[in-house]
Phosphatidate cytidylyltransferase (Rhizobium hainanense), 316 residues
Amino acid sequence: MEAASADLIHLVLGIFGVLIIASIIGYVLQQRLSPDGSNAAIENLNARIKAWWVMVVLIGIAFIAGRAGVILLFAFCSFAALREFVTLINTKRADHWALAAAFFVALPVQYYLLWAEQYGIYSIFIPVYAFLFMPIIAVLRGDTERFLVRIAEVQWALMICVFCASHVPALLTLHIPGYEGRNVLLIAFLVIVVQLSDVLQYVWGKLFGKTKIAPRLSPSKTVEGFVGGVISASLIGAALWWVTPFTPLQAGLLAFVITLMGFFGGLVMSAIKRDRGVKDWGHLIEGHGGLIDRLDSVVFSAPIFFHLVRYWWSLS
């Protein structure tokens, strides 16, 4: 436990050091190139840095609070993300019961099962039980207009915002021999690698990006940014092997997988936004859009990371 605390302190100090350097660079760039706020790229960069300070502090407080703090933080994130998702989908008055069940039954039950470490039911509660009962609740209202589309969108919202997101704190439930009391570091590894991949893809894209990957989905994503960001984040993941139960090679391979999932998750969520004709999921976080805009990469990579880690050790 003491070793875990020491590693977490070192990791947090490193993150704060990076943020301090980034803040200084952002301030200098603003004073020299955008004193009047006319440079959109620099203004966006500084807004992102400020938002990262807030997010890092909140996550740090949750880590200090322990298992309960982490679970409560992600339960709140799921609630806020679900709210953002629901504002963009097709719903009618007849769907209010199903939506109420999603917010006030499915979400708290999912996180309670996580708290109780009931993996057997936790892993199938939303994909099976919520999947079946949501349309039953909705159909009782008798409104069949666009029924399949409406209920499918509610089910998708639950899967992305609650089921997938809950796999981040679910890492605390894993029992890894010789790694007891250190699972919070797995969460730190996942979030740092995936989020750094997003940032590095943006940076590499701005510096060298020429070939757009999916201009209709996300015009800012380029092949050069994707390759540079994924490789850089994978190397950083390998360098962070000391906070995981893995070797540098294993940590690097896992980082590569989750950065790929994070990238494609971002594309999928961008496709949904384009379908709805919006730029961001919301405006909760200055410089970052809505909460889903920050979580899209994490929610796609978290279940894969969780199961890779879980079955890696159960089969070893």
Q: What stands out?
A: The mean pLDDT is 86. DSSP finds ten helices and no strands in the chain. Residues 1-313 form one domain.
